[in-house]
Amino acid sequence: MQLKTVIDIAGWGAAVLILCAYGLISTGKLQARAAIYQWMNIAGAVGFIINSGCNGAWPSVGLNVVWLGIAVYALQRNRRRTST
Within 13 A of 34's CA, how many CA atoms are on the CB side? Predict the structure, then answer.
């Protein structure tokens, strides 16, 4: 498989994950504190960072680094809340 194909798959996979996460939240099938929601956002952000970085779309890379950071923070915060 060519590298360009892998990069494209990362981008499309990221889009599917983030759109599905948003759809599940919007329809009430997931709660924002659900770990699976945060993991979908983490994986989606990583895919977009790979795709955007390889295509030189630096504003998108920056946005998704922040998106990733928010999801990681939320996952850790929610984990601390449930363990206390």
Answer: 13
Taking only the tens place, the pLDDT of each residue in 2-60 is 999 999 999 999 999 999 999 999 999 999 999 999 999 999 999 999 999 999 999 99
CA torsion sign for 23, 28, 33, 36 is negative
Would you list the domain boundaries of the chain? 3-83
Q: Which residues contact 51 (CB under 8 A, 6 or more apart)?
A: 7, 8, 10, 11, 14, 57
Distance of CA 67 to the CA centre of its chain: 7
- Residue with token string 């699976």: 36
